[in-house]
Amino acid sequence: MRGVSELPKVSIYTDGACSGNPGPGGWGAILRFGEVEKELKGGQPHTTNNQMELMAAISALE
Fold this sequence. Notes:
The chain is built from one helix and three strands. By secondary structure, the chain is an alpha+beta fold.
């Protein structure tokens, strides 16, 4: 069994925002594993900035 320091690392960057609070909003996430990147994004027509921030983090961890 490998120790935690030997496991591969994935860097995750997230952000979420909305125009008005509540209002239309969106979220994005970038997952980076070495030279490989994956982008995720989404949005809602009626949401809050906190919901979008959390959605970015949850989606990145799924």
